[in-house]
Amino acid sequence: MTHAVKISEELFANAKQNAKVFHRSTAGQIEYWSKIGQLVEQNPDLPFSFIQEMLLGLEQAKEGQLEEFKFTQ
Predict the structure, then answer these.
(1) DSSP label at 32?
(2) Distances from the Cα of 64 to the Cαs of 47, 54, 58, 59, 71, in angstroms?
(3) pLDDT digits (tens, 9 = 90+) for 18-30
(4) SS3 for the chain, per residue?
(5) Cα separation of 23 and 57, whole Å?
(6) Burial class (CB within 10 angstroms; exposed 0-12, middle 13-18, buried 19+) of 64
(7) Residues 25, 18: contact at Cβ < 8 Å?
(8) What whole-number distance in Å separates Cα of residue 29 and Cα of residue 23?
(9) pTM for the complete prediction?
């Protein structure tokens, strides 16, 4: 389901610009920022790079691209 939301012209312009760089739609860029913002608020002690890697790992798991980690001594 989609909903119309009013946002500032500045936020829209920034999202549109970033969306082009990362090959997303403008709405997809705003959704990405929203998801990242939620995760950062819920996990304030985690670095942003860790959150990004976690999201990548979740997508890889969905696509069956994970390999078992083998501990070494």
Answers:
(1) H
(2) 26, 15, 10, 9, 21
(3) 999 999 999 999 9
(4) CCCCCCCCHHHHHHHHHHHHHCCCCHHHHHHHHHHHHHHHHHCCCCCHHHHHHHHHHHHHHHCCCCCCCCCCC
(5) 20
(6) exposed
(7) no
(8) 9
(9) 0.75
